C-alpha cells in the first residue's frame, strides 16, 4: 500500500510539474534580434542568420522598408512565411488565434 501511495504522489507531482511547464511555454516570448545580424527566409524556405558588416550598409538599405509595429509573422501549414498587420490580440491581451 505504501508503494502505491508513493507512486501516486510521484505521478501527481510529475503531472503538476509538466502542467506548470506547459503553462509557461504558452506565454509569448520576445525575439532576441541582434545588431549587425541579418535574418533571411531563403528561397527554399529555410530561416537563416548572417553576420553583417557596415561597409556596404547603403546598398543594404536600398529597397528596404521598415516593418510596421504590430506586425505578426507566422509560418503557414504549407511552410510559407506570412505576415499580418491587422489585429491579433483579444481585448484582454490574449492571442486571438491560439489553440484554445
How is this fold's topology laid out?
Blueprint: H1 2-25, E1 37-41, E2 47-51, H2 57-61, E3 72-75, E4 81-84
Antiparallel strand pairs: 1-2, 3-4
Short description:
The protein has 100 residues and is of the alpha+beta class. It contains two helices and four strands; from the N terminus they run αββαββ.
- The helix count comes to 2
What average pLDDT do the residues reach?
75
Quaternary state of this entry equals: single chain
Strand order of the largest sheet: 1-2
Low-confidence stretches: 1-25
Strand proportion, as a percent range, falls in 15-25%
Say how many strands there are.
4
Structural features, described:
With 100 residues, this protein is of the alpha+beta class. It is 29% helix and 18% strand. It contains two helices and four strands. It has helices at residues 2-25, 57-61; strands at 37-41, 47-51, 72-75, 81-84. The strands form two sheets. Strands 1-2 form a two-stranded antiparallel sheet. Strands 3-4 form a two-stranded antiparallel ribbon. The chain is extended. The two termini are 39 Å apart.
Amino acid at each position: 500500500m505504501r508503494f502505491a501511495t508513493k507512486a501516486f504522489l510521484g505521478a501527481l507531482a510529475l503531472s503538476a510539474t509538466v502542467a506548470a511547464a506547459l503553462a509557461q511555454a504558452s506565454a509569448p516570448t520576445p525575439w532576441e534580434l541582434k545588431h549587425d545580424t541579418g535574418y533571411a527566409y531563403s528561397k527554399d524556405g529555410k530561416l537563416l542568420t548572417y553576420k553583417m558588416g557596415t561597409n556596404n550598409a547603403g546598398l543594404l538599405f536600398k529597397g528596404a522598408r521598415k516593418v510596421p509595429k504590430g506586425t505578426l509573422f507566422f509560418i503557414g501549414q504549407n511552410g510559407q512565411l506570412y505576415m499580418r498587420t491587422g489585429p491579433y490580440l483579444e481585448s484582454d491581451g490574449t492571442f486571438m488565434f491560439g489553440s484554445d
